[in-house]
Amino acid sequence: MPETLSSDVLKKLIDHRGKFLSFIERRVGSRAVAEDILQAAYIRGLERGGELRDDETAVAWFYRILRNSVIDYYRHEAAGNRAVEEWAKDLETQVEPDDLTRGTICECLKDVITDLKPEYRDAIQLVDLQEKSLRDFADHAGISPSNAGVRVHRAREALRKQVERVCGTCAAHGCLDCQCKHPKSDCHGHN
Questions:
Q1: What does the domain layout of the chain look like in residue ranges?
Q2: Phi, psi for 57 (deg, rounded to 5)
């Protein structure tokens, strides 16, 4: 069982809360984000209590955790921003299908979507099928627009893999008159 922090160390860390919060806020520019990072760092500190070295003060040790938490925050934000940029590029090159094409899209798509994780299913239904904005989806899901972009990107990738699994070569050959009714069925002999 991992070592836990002593009550003296915990008290010292709680006593420095204001300084810790200021340290983080100066680096992220938002009080709310700083609060979230600090709470997560406290949890991380509790989980890693055994890492406190004898030659290190508890406060110095915790500042190291805070620095790593801020770095993790920016890495996460950068990943989210890259996904949003990729999503924006997709939108720029996306061609709107005509009504005939919309009507002939594979019927098994509805079944494939239901097999996705609920958060991916919601992303596909709202953004791609109901044509809601990324901001609307973010508000609906209670997440940031960056996280919404990441989720939509991952949802589309999961949907692509699921369609390939279910429809086989029809997915690769663009079968528009698909009669797939169940996984791995023979879609006009293309399987």
A1: 7-81, 97-173
A2: -75, 155
Tokens of 27: 């680096």
What integer is the mean pLDDT of 136-148? 88
141's tokens: 């899901």
- Strand, coil or helix: what is 5? coil
Does residue 98 have a pLDDT over 60? no
- Could you give the C-alpha distances from 181 to 106, 168, 171, 185, 188, in angstroms and in order? 10, 13, 14, 7, 12
Spell out the residues 6+ positions from residue 185 whose beta carbon is closer than 8 angstroms to its own. 179, 191
| Among the four given CATH numbers 3.30.230.10, 3.40.50.300, 1.20.1250.20, 1.10.1740.10, the one describing domain 7-81 | 1.10.1740.10
For 8-57, write each residue's pLDDT tens digit: 888 889 999 999 999 999 999 899 999 999 999 999 888 887 777 655 68
Spatial distance between the Cα atoms of 92 and 148, rounded to a whole number of angstroms: 18
**Which residue stretches of 17-57 are H helix?**
17-28, 31-47
Whose tokens are 């709107």? That residue is 96
Give CATH for domain 97-173: 1.10.10.10
Note the pLDDT of residue 21.
94
